[in-house]
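#data-curation
PF: Archiving a pair of folding outputs for the training set. Convention for this channel: one message per protein, sequence first, structure tokens after, nothing in between. First:
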Amino acid sequence: MRKTQENDIHHKLSFTIISFLKKINQFFQKKPKSVRYLIKIIVESEKKKVIDYNIRKMLEGVISISQKRVRDIMTPRSHIITLRNNQNLKECLETIVNYPYSRFPVINKNKDQIEGLLVVKDLLPFLTQNEIENFQVSAIMRKAMVTPESKIISVLLREFQIKKQNISIVIDEFGGVSGLVTMENILNSIVGYISDKYKNFSDNINIQKISESLYLVNALTQIDEFNKTFHSHLRSQEFETIGGLIMQSFGRLPSKGESIIIDSYKFKIVLADSRKIIQTEVRIPKSS
């Protein structure tokens, strides 16, 4: 339900942003001399208290998407969480439950062969015992939207709104997969990430609360973000992410199920592949 509500919000917000872009054009009787000139007017409007700081930042974000390209905001290929087209239902669910996503790219042999998207809600009919044996990823996956990494973000936003999509596979000039872009990537580019004081764990895709002392933490979570969340003091001179810090502490790539204690925090590997840690379970000390 929550993921469906988020999708609805994304569609409504994208429509609002597109409408707002049109109004910006109508605001000026003459075409602004340049983007810099337009931003100058917005800054002066804040100084005159016509708009507040938050509105100014959002306006600057809206203007910026007319200059940025998809490659500037996409999730890189190496960080895409995928499902394989030959996985059974249990194997798919093992990946899905560890990530708060509603859509997963489906691959064949490698990430340059994305065949479609699996929408999580499409699994519901197969959650009964009678239907498990009939499950096939290839039979229920949907066609994936494809976008070149050179496309201007404002153009992609309009395409998302017209096609009622919120995710697209990104390809390079040679047709290879270079990443993934979502409506959330675009919105973050416009309005920025929500301030920590307004953020709770259920809104944080990197850190998910399980109980008072147990959390799921994405291995790509920045060490600084982890420290800010838990008021901890973890440090690494070589790595910036929790996954990197854990690998440094092990002295190797750990396997699923292995645990290690770092500065009183117990990290257990819950998902990993042959190259990297993907998801960890963290038990925080009682004093945190």
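PF: Second:
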Amino acid sequence: MLTERLRHVADAALEAAVIPSFTRIGPTVRRRLFDWQAPGTGALAGQVVVVTGATSGLGRVIAEGVGRAGAHVEVVGRNEERGTEVAADLHRQGIRAQFRRTDLSDLREVRDLASALLADHDRIATVVHNAGALAPKRRETADHLEVTWATMVVAPHLLTRLLADHLDRAVWMSSGGMYLQDVDLDDLGWEERAWNGSRAYAQAKRAQIDLVVEATERGEAPFQVAMHPGWADTPGVEAGLPGFRKVMGPLLRDPEAGADTAIWLTAEREASLKPGGFYLDRRPRGTVRWPGTATSTTDRHRLRTIVDAQVGLA
């Protein structure tokens, strides 16, 4: 039987190798190393969990997972037909759920979502910021923000701040792609650079982590953590990264493995988690693997100031 120290050594070796860690090998090995258990059926009983981007992919799996643990699930997404179908499917499984049609790239709709949630719930246990997409072309929102940045950075920040007095926890779904990208504070909207959807996506994912760390160091409510799902086979990967999917397909995680840590972070006791931590496979990880991608403390402060101004909270 492996000792605790040997289990951690094996986990660290996986993480250092990257490909075994990020692919289906990672959760397969770690599940056995650490004897993972799914949250019990009553672990989230009586709690409200909001999941954005919950109409497909990882978000749908997260919604089902927290629902099976007893949560009332607020399903947030843009597509009315898919969202209604997901909520109905959850109901058929005995899960309490409601669909909230919201385009997170529109800050007015984000504010309307927060108002509706607060009108219906005195307390929200967790919001899982899962929504995101890789855009092939640069587009701007009605608020004059680049869509990727608005959807994955500005909107979740605004929703967290609007719910803060009634929210216990925020879980941000980042991406391993952020390891390869820094945050260009002088061109967050890609107005000066030639558009690169993959890099814009990775920049937004890096910024998510920076905002979580900044809020935690300020001592702000709610409790916040970030995570990445590894390389999971999702509709987003199929549509946005077809070449990567073709090469890595046999090794990609299934959506259940990609969503596992988000579900676990929602149900785990706060005292067991690292405030502001960045998780993969139920363990906190480093946020820098490549030189020049780390965000300095000064730039992190500046990022927060910029995003506060973009949402009108400056």
